[in-house]
Amino acid sequence: xxxxxWSAGVYAAAIAMAKSMSTEELTRTALxxxxxxxxxSTLAALQNLDxxxxxxxxxxxxxxx
Length: 65
Fold this sequence. Notes:
Helix content: over 70%
Oligomer: single chain
């Protein structure tokens, strides 16, 4: 799936959800997804940093042979 298809799919899901929700429900759902996205981004960044550090440590140890 390319970026355009992904974006169109997200837009379609948002429209479908918005049509069936009250303003309050829509606001709460938007807040939930915003927090979820931020938390997932933070976890992905931390995993990446941890993997990079582990790779660097292995590279440093390979010189001991």
